[in-house]
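Recall from the previous chapter that SMILES is a line notation for molecules. Here it describes zinc ion.
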Amino acid sequence: MRTKWGTCNIDRKRIWINLQLAKKTPECLAYVVTHELVHLLERNHNEQFQKYMDTFFPEWRVVKEKLNQQMLDYMSE
Ligand SMILES: [Zn+2]
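With both inputs in hand, we obtain:
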């Protein structure tokens, strides 16, 4: 699983985090780490995945929105 902010290798149980996130707020980092960790439980972005996110990081939708917005800002720099 690869996104612009993080990568999860499910088979090796390893996650990689984009260093650009260090410039963001801690909640953004927490969101991406949680997202990648949930991939260890659920491979796909399906309903079950969202349930895990709701459990571990209830505000994830808000942070995701913010991150997407910041990514647009980042790319237009
Ligand atoms: Zn993902």
